[in-house]
Amino acid sequence: MHKQRAAGSRGSQSRRGQYFGSASFAAALLLAQVAGVGVAHAADAADASTQLDEVIVTASRVDRAGFTAPTPTTTVGLQELQKSGTTNVADFLNTIPAFGAATTPASTAHNSVGSGLNLVNLRSLGANRTLVLVDRERFTPSTATGRVDLNVIPTVMIERVEVVTGGASAAWGSDAVAGVVNLIFKKNLDGFAGEVTGGLSQQGDNQDIKTALSWGGTALDGRARLSIAGEYEDNRGIGRNSGRDILAQNYNVIANPTYKLGNGQPQNYVTSNVNVSTATLGGVVTTGPFAGQQFAPGGALVPFTYGTMRGSQYMIGGSGISVDNSINAAQLSQFANPVRRGNLYLRTSWDVTDNVEATVDASYAQSTSEGYLSIPYDLGTITIQRDNAYLTAAERAALTAANVTSFKMGRINQDVSYNYPVNETETQRFSFGLKGKFDALGTTWKWDGYVATGLTHFTQKIQGNRITANWTQAIDAVVNPANGQIVCRSTLTNPTNGCVPINLFGQGSPSAAASRYVTGTSMLAADFRQDAGAVNISGEPFSVPAGPVSIAAGLEFRRESVHQVADAISNANGFNIGNPHDINGSEGVKEAFVETVVPLLKDMTLVKSLDFNGAIRETEYQTSGAVTTWKAGLSWSVTDDLRVRAARSKDIRAPALGELYASYILSKGTLTDPAKNNQQFQVDTPQQGNVNLVPETADTTTFGVVYQPSFISGLNISVDYYNIDLHDAISALGSQDIVNRCYAGVAEMCQYVERNAAGELTRVTRANINLSELKTAGVDFEVAYNTPLSRLYEPLPGDLSLRFLGTYTDYLTSVDTNIVQQLVNAVGFGANGIPQWKWSASATWRNGPLTLYSQLRYTEGGRYDNLKDAAGVYTTQVLGGKNWFDGQYITDLSVQYELQPSAGRSVTLFGSVKNVFDTIGPPVGIGYILPGPTNFSFYDDIGRQFQIGARFHY
Q: Domain boundary at 521, 555, 573, which?
């Protein structure tokens, strides 16, 4: 028999350990650890074909049989991933209630830089505060902010995932403020295995195809092992012009033109049927004698009808963006970004001696995402001169009669170009490791070490990006008096400047040549390199009356660097969006840690065991100096059935390279200006780094109870309270927040706000700063029950697993510049909030080769945000209804059937239906010219999806 040992389990000494010893039964428990049953059965639940020498869990660096760490840990196994029909591990993790706002291909459809990323975010504290490890080693970052895109992780190699839902910096270092996600790979593949899956949505889009193959074998009488795996997935996403009903309703955030402080009305409304008041696909005139008219296809002027609540950008009702109202703004952009990803992984290990094993891991991954991000648009800001060559003689005469030399117009320039980003990420990593054991001081010591180097090469091309200088020249078209040809006015004085005049009057009027002249491709290429290594040792050098004292210690180093090169126009801020700059930066880290487990009491009245777990880590950063982190916790087994655990820790996160050295990135947004009668303006909103940042520090407290009654075999109940108080949080405030704070008298915010001579907003710079505090507290719940149905009623076949997982967030509070924001139930796009309640309830029935699985998930709704004006009125409310969005219930079903295995061969057929009842998330809207229907970070608007596939092994 192979040896299975899990730190955090009671193994064969526990009655529940005896009962759940079968792999088929224990698999049902894997997800049910979220509130803290720990990882008591992680070893038993491993895939039966995988031989494990030992299992060491992530909650502690101490390797000690029978020790249960005081920090709650979730373990998700291979079978749980398979039952859910997950093709990307991020998709599954984001269904666990402890995870907050997710970064996914759907949620990044309006984001050029992060387009297509799959990131996980514990407690909604930010993906950069969740440390992602692979086999307990730091993985090569996918972004300059140090985050690991799970698109580059080979799901086919994952044996289990361990999630520590509490501060773990003392054990694992910087970034583990909210917790740790440790992806454990299969170590000893045996034979060939593969999987083919295909899926699509009810609407026939979001098509997904995935294939995966793996092989493993041994040589030299089992002393050498080799594993090779690869997978490829192509998700087509959901493109523009989608016919989905939620898009046809055109929800958005509109300014309230009658708002006055103290009149009881909000500054903004969320409502449907929101149209653009100052731009159309063919152009609408906003000043002069033609004001209130729009250019139809072909260039003729026709009436433009204004709706109600008309503002500087939006209105309710009225004319749409097209003359025939055949399309609205919400239907113009990508609904969910397509992602193509592939990876290759190789692992070889060999026994150098009976006590020393060497390993080599090599991996390569590539991920590509592209899509129709947005359209260059102008909201009543295009200046047309009276002598524009594309105006008719009658139109010029009317302007002359009105003594007007120019007029303004607005246009959504779909017929000129789309901003079409193509993001490609290539990650390669090589790791060499040694581990072994030796006897000294009367005990057996275990040691391990590794060195790794990795490189992520990220490239971005934004095709169709408008060149500001060329656009300005091209729209000023005149007749050349020398030959009667239409040219740019600038060409009259500079005949060789190459300018191509553009006709903007009516949809379809711009020529292909003019469109090519006014647009280009912005480009950047960035390399993120990480060199890392560590040596660790653990043992039990002496004992106290209650048992042996365990110690783990280690030294670690890490060096990360970023080198980014951008095109010349971007470096000169010459494009309409983006404009990344060249950057170079690096960070070096040296660390040392010690962790111990000291048994305090054992086999006493009301004390089956009482263990102390403590750790301390000293970290020295090249840029920000030395920081000390620590953890202290108690694990108290009152009886075999009842365990109490508590932990207190100080955790840190140092500024990431992207936060220190981030290049200037230009984007645009619609902001409401309370200093200008609540008008809305299209504003440049660049973001840039700050080399003066200091590390964040967090005080984390967890307290929980685990109850596994012996008189109800198979029942597990746990409740865990968490409290995280983060100081000097690094963040870039939202542009609207900066404007509101400046208006409210927060002087330090006004340095980021720029206005023109008329006092109108033109630019709001989002700089990374150390804010005051980010606080959160809540409770995780878990109830799981597993039993053969024959125990309930003898004739019933099969095994049943039931579980409920839930997270209640009491508060998530941002405290900065003396302004307090409650982010619980702030579910609007960009609100940075979290639903107060998230839970899932599932049932699994397994009878021989057949497995049926169902899950009901709930995400609570909320307000757009919880911001209030000085009179205490919510600044953004739902128009004509309750100021609350309903939550979302999602039901998933799946079935698996294993064909009769023979001679070590097996084939499993499976299928699933996600979001069975086709429920749609609440229409929270996006305050943007091309709006989205909901906040994809929390809710699903893709709807019902189908998947079928097959797995084989031989």
A: 521
- Provide the H-helix boundaries in 184-277: 245-248
Do the domain assignments include residue 598? yes
Pairing of strands 766-767, 687-688: parallel
Judgement on whether residues 185 and 303 belong to the same structural domain of the protein: no
Q: CB–CB of 919/888 below 8 Å?
A: yes
Please indicate, yes or no, whether residues 341 and 437 belong to a single structural domain of this protein: yes
Per-residue pLDDT band for 840 (boundaries 50, 70, 90) equals very high
pLDDT for residue 53 is more than 60: no
Domain count, the chain: 2
Residue 196 lies in a domain: yes
Q: Which tens digit of pLDDT belongs to each residue from 211-253? A: 999 999 999 998 999 999 999 999 999 988 777 888 888 899 9
Give me the phi and psi of 427, to 5 degrees please.
-125, 125
Q: What is d(CA 124, CA 101) in angstroms, rounded to the nearest whole number?
A: 6
Of 685 and 638, the structure prediction assigns the larger pLDDT to 638
pLDDT over 90 (residue 417): yes
Alpha carbon distance 922, 882 (integer Å) = 13
Place of tokens 């090469």: 457
Provide DSSP, 434-486: EEEEEEETTEEEEEEEEEEEEEEEEEEEEEEEEBHHHHHHHTSEEE-TTT--E
Provide the sign of the torsion angle of the four alpha carbons 18, 19, 22, 28, taken in this order.
negative
Are 358 and 495 found together in one domain? no
Share of the chain above pLDDT 70, in %: 92
Name residues whose C-beta falls within 8 Å of residue 143's C-beta, 6 or more positions apart in sequence.
114, 117, 149, 458, 528, 658
737 within domain boundaries: no
Residues 452 and 572 placed together within one structural domain of the fold:
yes
Residue 383 pairs in a beta bridge with 408
**Domain contains 468:** no
Count the neighbouring beta carbons within 10 Å of the beta carbon of residue 949.
Answer: 21
The residue among 855, 842, 824 whose CA lies nearest residue 938 is 824
Specify whether 926 is located in the same domain as 805: yes
For residue 447, count CB atoms less than 10 angstroms from its CB and return exposed for 0-12, middle for 13-18, buried for 19 or more.
middle
Q: Is 815 exposed, middle or buried (0-12, 13-18, 19+ CB in 10 A)?
A: middle
**Rounded mean pLDDT, 432-458:** 94
Separation CA 86–CA 197 (nearest Å): 10
Question: Would you say 589 and 174 are in contact if contact means Cβ atoms under 8 Å apart?
Answer: yes
Q: Please enumerate in sequence order all residues whose Cβ is within 8 A of that of 645, keeping only pairs 6 or more positions apart, or say none.
A: 36, 68, 69, 70, 71, 72, 633, 634, 635, 636, 702, 703, 704, 705, 706
E strand or H helix at 379: strand 377-385
Confidence label for 56 from pLDDT (cuts 50, 70 and 90): low
* Claim to verify: residue 389 and residue 368 sit in the same structural domain: no
Give the burial class of 455: count Cβ atoms within 10 A of its Cβ; 0-12 exposed, 13-18 middle, 19 or more buried.
Answer: middle
Q: Band the pLDDT of 388: cuts 50, 70, 90.
A: very high
Q: How far apart are CA 69 and CA 611, in angstroms?
A: 9
Per-residue pLDDT at 771: 78
pLDDT of residue 52 exceeding 50, the answer is: no
Same domain, 191 and 109: yes
Q: Are strands 850-859 and 837-847 parallel, antiparallel or unpaired?
A: antiparallel
Domain range for 723 is: 11-241+337-372+422-461+524-655+693-732+768-953
Q: Which of 681, 472, 476, 469 is nearest to 575 (CA)?
A: 469
Give the dihedral sign, CA 102/130/52/784: negative
Write down which residue in 471, 491, 521 finishes a domain.
521
* Residues 330 and 344 occupy one common structural domain: no
Nearest Cα to Cα of residue 722 among 812, 804, 635:
812
Tell me what the pLDDT averaged over the chain comes to: 88
> What six digits make up the tokens of 619?
């970290």
In this structure, are strands 642-653 and 696-707 parallel, antiparallel, or unpaired?
A: antiparallel
Domain containing residue 635: CATH number: 2.40.170.20
